[in-house]
């Protein structure tokens, strides 16, 4: 997990190009989702974290976003995850 406030914009762009970051999350709400999610784009930098993959996010007890990851969210909600 990488905290957005701990890296520069250049470091962020580099990690994105190298595909070392594929998901974003909210530190306070413990929700993760797509980097293109409308909800995720509105959060404050201090609350944003990044994950390499879904496995990492789930291992840190984050849940899928109900907007951009509807099926994964429904699976999580129904206890399938």
From TrEMBL:
Entries under Pfam families matching the protein: Ada_Zn_binding
Molecular-function GO terms, alphabetical: DNA binding; methyltransferase activity; zinc ion binding
GO biological process: DNA repair; regulation of DNA-templated transcription
Keywords per UniProt: Activator
Residues in Ada DNA repair metal-binding domain copies: 21-68
Name of the protein: Metal-binding protein
Source organism of this protein record: Acinetobacter tianfuensis
